[in-house]
Structures are given as structure tokens and as C-alpha cells.
Amino acid sequence: MVTIIAAAAENNALGKDNDLVWHLPDDFKRFKALTTGHHIIMGRKTFESFPKPLPNRVHILVTRQEDYQKEGCITVNSIEEALALAKEDNQPFIIGGGEIYRLGMPYTDKIELTRVHGEFEADTFFPEIDPEQWELTGSEYHSKDERHNYDFTYLTYIKKPGTGK
């Protein structure tokens, strides 16, 4: 089961200038809990936004740059190559950015989306979720508090049978 995991605003904003536009500590904890022990597939720019590789995960970077290499990471030139390398993992995660989400959507079975309640200026966006293809199966609302400047909701979508690859 291939899973996309993302945090996107109500206008589908993901980030600006290769950085997030909000700070949600509980969402970071959830991301870590869900992805630890799995393959994480991402674009080069997403990887370069990290201070270092994330522990206890296999990093697969998708880039058009033929000679791009990073220590501790596997580099490929297509989402299909990335998914083929992750096929032994029972739940590889596609973690961004916007273009990688768009390319990965047809191959995805599940979306774990943190919907940040607000609209933000951004240069990277999450693709629209087509309600004809995706069923919302879980929703957990969180109010803003002293550690979180925005309300947010964890949303789980499952691809409807017969609607994709």
C-alpha cells in the first residue's frame, strides 16, 4: 500500500521557498511515528530542505539530475523507479514536494493529510483530491493551542476500488 503523507492548507499550500509556512509539533510527531521503519520517497528539493537525513528510514530521492548523489540516500530519475525500489516495503510513503505528490497520486492507495485550517501564500501546492476517486475514512480535529498557531485536522483517504492503477 503506497501512502502519500502531507500537510496542506485549505488552499492546498504546502510551502514557500522550500520551507513549511507553519510549525505544528504534533504533526511532526505523527509524521515520525507513521514513517519510521519505511521507505520515504521525495524530490531532491524536499530532501535538501532537511538539516540531515531522517533516522530509521530509507530515503529515495527523485530528481532529473543524472549525477545527483547524497550519502545515505538512493537516487532515481522517476517515481516509477522509486516505487519499484520500495516494493518490498508494505507501506512506502511519498513525502513531497508538490510535483512528486502529483506524479505519485496515480500509484497511491492512501493519503494521510494534515489539513491546516488557514490559507497561506505559497509556491508549492498539494494536488486536488478528487472525491470521485478518494473516500474520507478518518478525521481527527485539533484546536490551536500554545504550541500550535493553527487549527488542523488529520484526514485519512482511501482510494475507491476501480479508480486508479
Automatic annotation (TrEMBL):
<keyword id="KW-0521">NADP</keyword>
<dbReference type="GO" id="GO:0046452">
    <property type="term" value="P:dihydrofolate metabolic process"/>
</dbReference>
<dbReference type="GO" id="GO:0004146">
    <property type="term" value="F:dihydrofolate reductase activity"/>
</dbReference>
<protein>
    <recommendedName>
        <fullName>Dihydrofolate reductase</fullName>
        <ecNumber>1.5.1.3</ecNumber>
    </recommendedName>
</protein>
<dbReference type="GO" id="GO:0006730">
    <property type="term" value="P:one-carbon metabolic process"/>
</dbReference>
<dbReference type="InterPro" id="IPR001796">
    <property type="entry name" value="DHFR_dom"/>
</dbReference>
<keyword id="KW-0560">Oxidoreductase</keyword>
<comment type="function">
    <text>Key enzyme in folate metabolism. Catalyzes an essential reaction for de novo glycine and purine synthesis, and for DNA precursor synthesis.</text>
</comment>
<dbReference type="GO" id="GO:0046655">
    <property type="term" value="P:folic acid metabolic process"/>
</dbReference>
<dbReference type="GO" id="GO:0070401">
    <property type="term" value="F:NADP+ binding"/>
</dbReference>
<comment type="pathway">
    <text>Cofactor biosynthesis; tetrahydrofolate biosynthesis; 5,6,7,8-tetrahydrofolate from 7,8-dihydrofolate: step 1/1.</text>
</comment>
<dbReference type="InterPro" id="IPR024072">
    <property type="entry name" value="DHFR-like_dom_sf"/>
</dbReference>
<dbReference type="GO" id="GO:0046654">
    <property type="term" value="P:tetrahydrofolate biosynthetic process"/>
</dbReference>
<feature type="domain" description="DHFR">
    <location>
        <begin position="1"/>
        <end position="159"/>
    </location>
</feature>
<dbReference type="Pfam" id="PF00186">
    <property type="entry name" value="DHFR_1"/>
</dbReference>
<dbReference type="InterPro" id="IPR012259">
    <property type="entry name" value="DHFR"/>
</dbReference>
<keyword id="KW-0554">One-carbon metabolism</keyword>
<dbReference type="GO" id="GO:0005829">
    <property type="term" value="C:cytosol"/>
</dbReference>
<comment type="similarity">
    <text>Belongs to the dihydrofolate reductase family.</text>
</comment>
